[in-house]
Design a protein that fits this description.
Layout (H helix, E strand, L loop, with lengths): L2 H5 L4 H9 L12 H11 L1 H21 L5 E14 L20 E18 L1 H68 L5 H36 L5 E5 L13 H11 L1 H22 L4 E13 L7 E12 L7 H68 L4 H35 L5 H8 L2 E7 L26
Antiparallel strand pairs: 1-2, 2-4, 3-6, 4-5
Helix pairs in contact: 3-5, 4-5, 5-6, 5-8, 5-10, 6-10, 7-9, 8-9, 9-10
């Protein structure tokens, strides 16, 4: 039997649908979980950013690899030159004075061109930078997978939070109407003198509390809806409901150790941290390679031309050879780089261990929660039956005078709280089961499709009106203020 059949009488359902569809018109077809998941995979900004980051890291490998490939550089200059010269001389002689010689300037133009090609023969720093770039790609693959899995669980959680909030709101609406009718009856009984005003005020206080609960449930529904829109970038008029035939069973295989092993082998966060160790280890290797020599082959051609002194012709030369470089002393920067890389490697190893422990703890906790959810759902369902029977017995006792109105109101509240708790338990089971799959690294679109098969195709409309109040239940009461003491 569906929750709505417990929570809402048939005449109330059109009221709920009218409340939820009053603000604007959107496509009528209800969206299911797999459709919304695909929308999120196509439109989610965080996932798009992660994909771009992966492509950027992948391009970094080509950047590093370029240092091992041939390099060709060309340079040239065209210049106008002005040369200034000044000379002076003096000679001492009989009856003679001094003599000065000063000269002017020379102006000429020059053209120079250099073309050089190099090829690295031995460059251990660059080679290890390529290796580090490849390991960074491996790490980014796992980080991208983790982002995708996080999006899948976020979408599923937001989807079922909407259904959870909707069913809780159905229960709160039904509770408000039931207690409102009880308030009406109390008012009528007070007017004919069958009960005291205190019982009416008790009923009024309980009704006000039920109204506050309903308003809070409406707010929760709207917040849940906005969360889903933020993930997909789209707005949905309605979504499909979760069926009562959904299997409530322990995860398969029903072994906590199995799920822990899966997490250590498949969890992308664990694998990303493990790949990060290799990235840091490559950093140490790069720093150590800074002490090694480099060797490259080169060939160049140089061309020069000048019109000084009205000369004609040009000068040109070429070279082919091997160039070697050995860093003898770098001011201690190489040793410091090695120490820095070693500490970063040590840090990444601790990060991996922390992530490994965290994943183990989360898998164990989620497995326990799912196991408890199986029993909780069954207990919550039985609690509805028990509270319904208790309410009927309390009402019968009230009619014969053995129970008062407070007992009836409490029984009413207990029933609808049980209905809301049952809805909470069902959706906790689904979300915790998917979270367990995520922590074990086994959450993908196929897993979402399995859950999607549990949907019924019934539409749940959840759009709230911008201004409420017109369709809210108001008990018809005409009760004056309670009499004051001494009157």
């Amino acid at each position: 039997m569906r929750l709505a059949h417990w929570a809402v009488n048939a005449p109330l359902r059109p009221l709920l649908l009218a409340v939820f569809t009053a603000s604007f018109v959107l496509p009528a077809q209800a969206a299911d979980l797999i459709t919304i998941t695909r929308d999120a995979l196509d439109n989610n900004a965080a996932l798009a950013s992660a994909r771009s980051e992966y492509l950027g890291v992948e391009a970094g490998r080509d950047v590093a690899r370029g240092g091992l490939l041939p390099q060709i550089n060309a340079s040239g200059t065209v210049a106008h030159n002005e040369q200034y010269e000044s000379q002076s001389s003096s000679r001492a002689g009989t009856g003679s004075g001094t003599g000065n010689v000063s000269a002017g300037d020379d102006r000429y133009n020059t053209v120079a061109l250099t073309l050089e090609a190099t090829q690295a023969l031995y460059d251990e720093v660059t080679r290890r930078q390529v290796t580090q770039a490849e390991r960074q790609i491996d790490q980014q693959v796992y980080l991208l997978a983790a982002t995708e899995q996080q999006l899948l669980i976020d979408v599923a959680s937001a989807y079922f939070d909407i259904l959870r909030a909707y069913e809780v709101l159905e229960a709160r609406f039904a509770q408000e109407r039931a207690i409102g009718r009880q308030l009406e009856q109390a008012g009528e009984q007070f007017e004919v003198g069958l009960i005291a005003i205190t019982e009416v005020e008790e009923a009024r206080a309980t009704f006000d509390q039920s109204r506050a609960d309903r308003i809070a449930a409406e707010s929760n529904l709207q917040v849940a809806f906005e969360a889903l829109e933020q993930l997909t970038g789209q707005r949905y008029a309605s979504i499909e409901a979760l069926g009562d035939s959904m299997p409530i069973a322990l995860p398969e295989p029903s072994s906590r150790d199995y799920w822990v092993e899966q997490a250590l082998e498949l969890n992308p966060q664990v694998l990303a941290q493990q790949a990060g160790i290799e990235v840091s280890r490559s950093g140490v290797e790069i720093a150590r390679a800074g002490r090694l020599p480099t060797l490259q082959a080169f060939g160049n051609y140089q061309y020069g031309d000048s019109d000084i002194d009205n000369t004609t012709g040009n000068d040109s030369s070429s070279q082919v050879g091997i160039r070697a470089n050995l860093p003898v002393y770098t001011g201690g920067s190489t040793s410091a780089s090695i120490r820095q890389g070693t500490y970063q490697l040590e840090s990444s190893q601790y990060d991996f261990e922390s992530q490994r422990r965290s994943s183990i703890q989360q898998v164990r906790s989620l497995y326990t929660q799912v196991s408890n959810d199986v029993e909780t759902v069954e207990a919550r369902e039985q609690a509805i039956v028990s509270n319904r029977s208790a309410l009927e017995a309390t009402r019968a006792g009230y009619e014969v005078g053995t129970r008062n109105i407070v007992d009836v109101l409490n029984a009413e509240q207990n029933l609808y709280n049980a209905i809301a708790n049952y809805a909470e338990a069902r959706y906790d089971y689904v979300v915790n089961l998917l979270s367990l799959r995520q922590q074990a690294g086994r959450l993908d679109v196929d897993a979402i499709e399995e859950v999607n098969a549990w949907l019924t195709g019934d539409e749940v409309n959840f759009t709230l009106p911008e201004s409420g109040g017109n369709d809210r239940y108001e008990p018809a009461l005409n009760i004056g203020a309670p009499p004051q003491p001494g009157m």
